[in-house]
Design a protein that fits this description.
The chain is mainly beta. It has one domain: Allene oxide cyclase-like (AOC barrel-like). Helices cover about 10% and strands about 45% of the residues. The protein has one helix and nine strands. It has an eight-stranded antiparallel barrel. About 25% of the residues are buried.
Length: about 180
């Protein structure tokens, strides 16, 4: 066996032993974290002064002031909700959650979300953009953070949502635990 063959064999042995597979997923460390709450008051025909969201599309024959039966399938709502640092609806807002949710499943409560947090406080200036499916009946669920502006320029990560409170079909509060894994 020549010197060249020995070097090649040695090279492959080093490769085979230098990267053992542990079977574990890589753990990522977040570069920034935020915990915020957004409060949604759905317009029901009687609460226009307090409403922060409204049904803008519904199945044929449905009422735009009452969520459709059948898991609200086919309803589309737009919102401009206050964002607070705690779970108190009357706390000073640090920004607005603006976007839409679409009830898109016939056999369970699930929605598709597309929205932006517009933050304008002494601590944070800018926007954070979210998109993804929201299986509402699951206690905690993740949606994608796909970008931002200002203090959140080009940030990406994951937001863990939890329905913190709800009152029938009129009010709900989401706890939004944001972890950014790309920060510029």
């Amino acid at each position: 066996m020549g010197a060249k063959s020995c070097i090649i064999i040695f090279f492959f042995m080093v490769l085979a032993t230098s990267s053992p597979s542990t079977g574990r997923k890589k753990q990522y460390k977040s570069c920034k974290e935020l915990l915020l709450y957004f409060h949604d008051v759905i317009y029901n025909g009687k609460n226009k002064e307090n409403a922060t969201s409204a049904i803008v599309a519904a199945p044929e024959g449905a009422n735009l002031t009452i969520l459709a039966g059948n898991f609200h399938f086919g309803n589309i709502a737009v919102f401009d909700d206050p964002i607070t640092l705690d779970n108190n609806f009357h706390s000073k807002p640090v920004g607005r959650a603006q976007g839409m949710y679409i009830y898109d499943t016939k056999n369970t409560y699930t929605s598709w979300l597309g929205f932006t947090f517009v933050l304008n406080s002494t601590d944070y200036q800018g926007t954070i953009n979210f998109i993804g499916a929201d299986p509402i009946m699951i206690k905690t669920r993740d949606i994608s953070v796909v970008g931002g502006t200002g203090d959140f320029f080009m940030h990406r990560g994951v937001a863990t949502l939890m329905t913190d409170a709800f009152e029938g079909d009129v009010y709900f509060r989401l706890r939004v635990d944001i972890k950014f894994y790309e920060c510029w």
